[in-house]
């Protein structure tokens, strides 16, 4: 087990209740960096996070989290802060009661820090959990995670439902957290704009499989987006078009960079954005899946 | 330290940081020994990835502009005059190459090109002496 990895999944497979499965999921994050887990709704982001946190059993492979094998010792919980897209705290609790309730579970709970963070985030100790807005609720969960001195923050869809100002604040909070090089962040998202700037590493997941993982620059270098007239992207030899979008005036698709040289001179080849990569990969499996019963779609991904 | 990033410049972010810090050091705005923010603090302040700021600092260090101290930050190294001259020569070359490319497209020959350059040098001299006259 290597100490310089925040976590690693190696060949992880699991089946969840509704027939959805993760297959051979492998990726890792070095300590001290931010990774974005990108995928469409239903791609397997939340299942992957649940496996990583030991909330979901796995059937094959292995998972390493902060130097421990998952399921790890109970104390491992102290080092991981989890921010879900819904709060797990009881609505009637006041923020002072949140502290009183959670504090006994954590050896390193820092009461001074909790108060400082609430103040910094503009949260009132007397407010009730159920009265907090979406953004405030998320800040409360972050405050809890930072107060028990988590070394890894895991966010599941943190930015969905947040307004631009709150999203920007979150980016600032993550930046502050990462000033300590022993700290790492994983977040899942389908909004890639959040990642375009602050993400160090990116993992693309689709249909329960990892499509690509690596540093953000490697991922951006791996693909090119091509645009051409309606017939220009047909019958190409040696080029696999990923997620073709066609209209009456033209067609657009993603290709692997090494195959881009085989395209004719007439088409426009450009460096993609993360969003374009996510969209085309998301589209790529919908086509062959047409006419296939719902529950079996991932078989064809 | 002043760094202003453009999202639409078409220049990679690490390159923008490197260029701006390098220029500030060459211009003497960042003096020898000045402390620069750590890689992580700069990433936070500019809201960009740590890998990007690490790369900018690594290249500045490789070119002898700064020294980085792991876990602390970075500081400006004394300007190596040979290095400065090297950098400036490279810029002259780049500028002349750009001029040459444009001249070829405009169908300008060697004579015409040199005439323009002489004209510019002449104007520079006149400007300098005018400045001198004013300060007197």
Name a few traits of the molecule:
heterodimer, A: 301 residues, alpha/beta, six-stranded mixed beta sheet, four-stranded antiparallel beta sheet, 14 strands, B: 136 residues, mainly alpha, three-stranded antiparallel beta sheet, 5 helices, 7% strand
Brief characterization of the structure:
The complex is a heterodimer of chains A (301) and B (136). Chain A is 26% helix and 27% strand.
Could you characterize what this model shows?
The complex is a heterodimer of chains A (301) and B (136). Chain A has 301 residues and is an alpha/beta fold. Chain A is built from 8 helices and 14 strands. In chain A, strands 6-7-8-3-9-10 form a 6-stranded mixed beta sheet, sandwiched between helices. In chain A, strand 9 and strand 10 form a beta hairpin. The two termini of chain A are 32 Å apart. The relative contact order of chain A is 0.15. The model of chain A is unreliable at 287-301 (pLDDT under 50). By secondary structure, chain B is mainly alpha-helical. Chain B has a 3-stranded antiparallel beta sheet, with helices on one face. Chain A binds chain B through residues 32-34, 171-172, 175-176, 178-179, 181, 197-200, 215-217, and chain B through 13, 38, 40-41, 43-45, 47-51, 71.
The overall pLDDT average of chain A reads: 85
Major sheet summary line of chain A = 6 strands, mixed
Beta strand % of chain A: 25-35%
Strand order of the biggest β-sheet of chain A: 6-7-8-3-9-10
Number of helices of chain A: 8
Helix- and strand-based class of chain A? Answer: alpha/beta
Largest interface: A-B, 17 and 13 residues
Report the principal-axis shape of chain A.
elongated
List the secondary-structure elements of chain B in sequence, H or E: HEHHEEHH
Low-confidence stretches of chain B: none
Write the layout of secondary structure elements.
The complex is a heterodimer of chains A (301) and B (136).
Chain A: E1 5-15, E2 21-30, E3 34-38, H1 45-52, E4 60-65, E5 68-69, E6 80-83, H2 95-102, H3 111-120, H4 134-147, E7 152-156, H5 164-177, E8 184-189, H6 193-198, E9 201-206, E10 209-215, H7 216-222, E11 223-228, E12 242-246, E13 251-256, E14 268-270, H8 274-284
Parallel strand pairs in A: 3-8, 3-9, 6-7, 7-8
Antiparallel strand pairs in A: 1-2, 1-4, 4-5, 9-10, 11-13, 11-14, 12-13
Helix pairs in contact in A: 3-4
Chain B: H1 13-26, E1 35-36, H2 39-46, H3 50-62, E2 66-69, E3 73-76, H4 81-106, H5 110-135
Antiparallel strand pairs in B: 1-3, 2-3
